[in-house]
Amino acid sequence: MPPRSTGVQPGVDAAEQDTERPTVQRQNVRNDTITSSLKLSLSRTTHRTRLRTISPTAFSPSHFDEVTPKCIHITTLGEGWADTLPLHRFVAPSDGSRTVDVAFDQGSLGPYTAEDLHAQADEGRGLELEDGWLIESARSPVHNFAYRRLHEFIEAAAVEAGASVYVDRGGDWEITTSAGIRKPDVFVVPRSVAQEWFRDDGPAVISGRDLQLVAEVVSPGSRSERTDRHRKLREYAAMNIPHYWIVDYAPRPRVRVFSLSDYETDPIGNKTGAYRLDRLVEATDTLEVEVQSDKPFTVRFEPRALVEF
């Protein structure tokens, strides 16, 4: 396979390039019988860019070389992030049953797709797909106990309020973000969204934009700790997920509660959220958060209860 073009001038560091009309190099995206190509000209940007997924109908036909009707995909860039977030390509199974976005940045894209993830042992339940790379989720008995307890507290609150939501964890469920496929420890989604996948024998893929709450239990010192604390903070905000909880069980139980503080709107009207830290709930304090749904419900518990046997 020939190397992918990076779009970088020879002998010039990518971080130093700043041109008036850079062009995203044409990329062929192939998955079984589905192939699409895109070529997008950008008015001006630097190496520090912000990406948003938008509908291809927002662009004139001149932005595309070819687009197959089964693929919905295009990204545009604006300025503002402190780091570079990767561009997307979309991968769809040949039966057209679902579309999964896989991120890339014109050179650092890994060789793996959603199909490779599902081909792994146990259909890749312990793996995430990040920028085309398969990333193993760090789990331990204490980690697993903590997220199960968290699941119980959230589900009990939803049931008590009569909310039509589904509470579960990643593994069997796959959540798409700008990076690819995430498998959060606990998430809440409208029951109507989850029901669509109970009729499908394949992996259940849900857009991050459908989630009402997402939580990650951090394994200290693990490879995934930085991702949970930093990268997913941006990814989940970009998906406009109203609540993100970062849960620690060591050295002491506590929960960081993040919620969307405001939205930024791009030129075509798409909104991207940003999180603020609402509170840091220590072990013996009481977490109390209202989750908006068809029937709002309030989750209450003390973080220390997450590790009490």
Automatic annotation (TrEMBL):
Residues 1-24 are annotated as: Disordered. Residues 115-270 form the Putative restriction endonuclease domain. The keyword Nuclease applies. One of its GO terms (molecular function) is endonuclease activity. CDD domains: DUF820-like (cd06260). The keyword Transcription does not apply. Keywords: Endonuclease, Hydrolase, Nuclease. This is Uma2 family endonuclease. It comes from Actinomadura syzygii.
